[in-house]
Amino acid sequence: MTIRVLLADDQALLRGTFRLLIDSCDDMEVVGEAADGHQAVELARSHRPDIVLMDIRMPGADGLAATATICEDPDLASTRVLILTMFETEEYVAQALRVGASGFLGKYVTTDALLNGIRTVAAGEALLSPGATQALITRFLTLPTSGPPLAPAERLADLTPREQEVTVLAALGKSNDQIAQELFLSVLTVRTHIQRAMTKLGARDRAQLVVIAYQNGLVRPAPPRS
C-alpha cells in the first residue's frame, strides 16, 4: 500500500527536495504541496493524505495551528501529522503533541530517519522513543493548559491492568519490542493492548495515548535534575 504524503513548508526548495526523496520510494508518493498552514488544511481536506509532513514556522497560519485544525476534523481522522522543523525546542514539541501531532523531527535528520519516520507514523506509531523527546514529554506534558485533558481521568478505569501497564511503558518511551521483552509478551500482543487502550481512551494514535497518560497522572514526571 502506498503512503500518500502532503508536504507543508514555506520553502519551495525544501518541498522540491522532499518530493524527489519521497517519490523515489516505491511505498510512498507526494500528493500535494502547501506553502502555509491555510493551504495545508485545504489540501489535506481535498487529498486526504495519510501523512502531512508539516513545518512549524510558516506565514499566515503556522504549522501548529494547521495541525490542530487537521487533527480536530473528523473527516481527516485517518490523516496523521509529522512535524519536521529546524526549531526543535521543548515548547514546540509539547505544543505539537498536545494539538495532535503523531511525531516530531528536526530537519537535520538523515534521509533514512525521515523516510522511516514517515513509515512509522503511517503505521499508527509515534516518534516518541528518543531520549531527548522523552525528556521533553516528561517535563512539559503535565504543565497546566488552558484546555481540558484529552480524556477524563475516570476513563482510565476502563483499562485492564495489562492495558494500563502497557500504556505506562509506552508513555515512558519504550518501543513495542522493548515492552514485549519486559513483560514477556509477543510484539503482536503488545500492539493489541496498545490499540485497545487507544480505543477506550479515544486516542487517535500512540502520541495522544502518551499525552493522556501524563495528563491524568497514570505516569508521573521525573523530578528535574539539579
Protein architecture, described:
- This protein has 226 residues and is α/β, with parallel strands linked by helices.
- It has helices at residues 12-23, 37-47, 63-72, 90-98, 111-122, 131-140, 161-171, 176-183, 187-201, 206-215, and strands spanning 3-8, 28-34, 51-54, 80-85, 103-106.
- The chain has a five-stranded parallel sheet, with helices on both faces.
- It is globular.
Number of helices: 10
Tell me roughly what share of residues is in helical segments.
40-55%
Going by helix content, strand content and strand pairing, the class is alpha/beta
Global mean pLDDT: 84
The rough form would be described as globular
Order of neighbouring strands in the sheet with most strands: 2-1-3-4-5
**Radius of gyration, in angstroms, nearest whole number:** 17 Å
One letter per element, helices H and strands E, the order comes to EHEHEHEHEHHHHHH
Residue runs with pLDDT of under 50 for 5 or more positions: none
Sheet having the most strands: 5 strands, parallel
The percentage of residues in β strands lies in 5-15%
Total strands? 5
Distance between the termini: 49 Å
Summarize the structure.
The chain is an alpha/beta fold and 226 residues long. It has helices at 12-23, 37-47, 63-72, 90-98, 111-122, 131-140, 161-171, 176-183, 187-201, 206-215; strands at 3-8, 28-34, 51-54, 80-85, 103-106.
